[in-house]
Amino acid sequence: MRAWHFAERPEGEPTLDSFDLRETERPTPRHGELLVRVRYLSVDPYMRGRMRDSESYADPWDVGDVLRGGVVGEVVESEHDGYAAGDLVTGRGTWAEYSVLDADEAARVDPDVADLPAYLGILGMPGRTAYFGLLDVGDPQPGDTVVVSGAAGAVGSTVGQIAKLNGCRVVGFAGTEEKTSWLTDDLGFDAAINYKQTDDYRAALDDAAPEGVDVYFDNVGGPITDAVFTKLNLDARVAVCGQIAHYNDEEVPTGPRKLPLLIASRAKVEGLLVRDYAPRFDVARERLERWVASGAIDHRETVVEGLENAPDAFLGLFSGDNIGKQVVRVAE
Amino acid sequence: MRAWHFAERPEGEPTLDSFDLRETERPTPRHGELLVRVRYLSVDPYMRGRMRDSESYADPWDVGDVLRGGVVGEVVESEHDGYAAGDLVTGRGTWAEYSVLDADEAARVDPDVADLPAYLGILGMPGRTAYFGLLDVGDPQPGDTVVVSGAAGAVGSTVGQIAKLNGCRVVGFAGTEEKTSWLTDDLGFDAAINYKQTDDYRAALDDAAPEGVDVYFDNVGGPITDAVFTKLNLDARVAVCGQIAHYNDEEVPTGPRKLPLLIASRAKVEGLLVRDYAPRFDVARERLERWVASGAIDHRETVVEGLENAPDAFLGLFSGDNIGKQVVRVAE
């Protein structure tokens, strides 16, 4: 089978040089594991962190390793009583045609609820991140203004829609007209700011969030975030979910200091990782499935065809190529 | 009587030019008010914010106004049933020989519990700030490492001691050997770092906080804070109480971006203002008085003699002249 290996650590923005597609042996599942034929694999911004040779919340990839990531696929061989060949599952796998999954960490997918790619997006890790990050950290109240950066991504688009369900005014930042139109016309965002069409994010927020910002869900960092912090209302909550603007930085990035702003607003800024909410993943999944099934929340996936194009799909995350969740179709 | 008036708005570091001592009429209390002969008045870093012509959490002073601040004094004339001439009280007054206080906002002081200046420090606003900021925002747990900047100030010295009562390892930053010795030898801090003796705060923290930082109580901002953020443990809490390093900045200060650090640590950073805790001030006062009376917590005041020296006492806050609470003795 074919599998992508980690060829070299990038400096700054990654290139295709970091990836090496090799022919390799199909892995063999051990007790408690499943061999899965991968249908779709997920590429996510957090993977840039795994390319660094430093401990962080995700273990660094070793050069030479097969790349890892979320997959959806069909069980080919089961070494776990709960699963049989033919079952459709999602879990942590590899950038490969076949992956071995830990059955205890895997979950069934139901193609009647949503198409398979959705299980890597709104019904997968990004959906859960949006759910807990917004509801637990952001604590949105009816009437609040919620601002989301990276709003047309897998996480951001879900955050905005959950905020709408909670009675909030929702403003999203995104980088193309196609994205901003999707947010306002299809997803019900109250306003969307194309950050590539203006440098004055503060003025754009004066228009889009005239009553200030109560909740900021940050996937991006950088100048957008700098502007939002100047608009935080009393008791505002900031959920720091991602900082994709800085993932390729080789030096510690600098910018305006924000702590002085927090005293007057008594705002709370909190970093989050979705895995901390693992004991409640079932709750999120049940709710998200219900919202998706009822049409209360919409979702979208950008599908790149073919395992051979997985690195391009990953690199595209940093130029904003995706609308909604970026996935790679490995097999039909 | 004599009273200090606000003469002009400073740019950058304030000077004596902002202050004007004038002879003026002794004010007359109205219904519900007390005329108080001021014994001690408080100068506090937050007053720098009131010198700006911009709305913040404290209303800006108007040029020409009498300067306002906390005082302790003796009631000379009472227009409130609860107080009589001769009572010792503390409340919000003026930089003057006599002040009119709102009786409903005033509180009695008991010279048997502590000397009068303590009611502007550990038994006043700074003590309450320390109490709620540490316990509510910092949420210290036994065994936690708590780092305090501005540790020899009125707030910081109280924070560190309350953290010790809660079973924490406590590390303070201060700017003289006299201060660091006070922290470790008299107040029981586990370590104190003289930030004027080293540029490498990170290395100093590696020694003083070898298990990382669980709670950071920040009175200062700037490079000390930058270093502490690189040491935050999982689930760390940062209480942003003051940013005295930046109060004289005319431009928005810049520095290393901290949000990327918050994701891995899932740290929470929260600004605080003590007035939000007003409904529980009685609780703080009762506990702080008990701790002071029993000797569980020590306190210190730096007393400048004479109303005429109040501006110097205020300016000294920015050069760290004070140990513990800075007060001005206006009358015996």
From TrEMBL, chains A, B:
InterPro entries in UniProt: ADH-like_C, ADH_N_2, ER, GroES-like_sf, MDR_fam, NAD(P)-bd_dom_sf
Positions of the Enoyl reductase (ER) domain: 14-328
Region annotation Disordered: where it falls in the sequence: 1-25
Organism: Haloplanus aerogenes
Keyword Ribosomal protein: no
Alphabetical keyword list: Oxidoreductase
The protein, known as: NADP-dependent oxidoreductase
Keyword Hydrolase carried by entry: no
Annotated signal peptide: none
Lineage: Archaea, Methanobacteriati, Methanobacteriota, Stenosarchaea group, Halobacteria
GO MF entries: oxidoreductase activity, acting on the CH-CH group of donors, NAD or NADP as acceptor
Compositionally skewed regions (Basic and acidic residues) per UniProt: 1-12
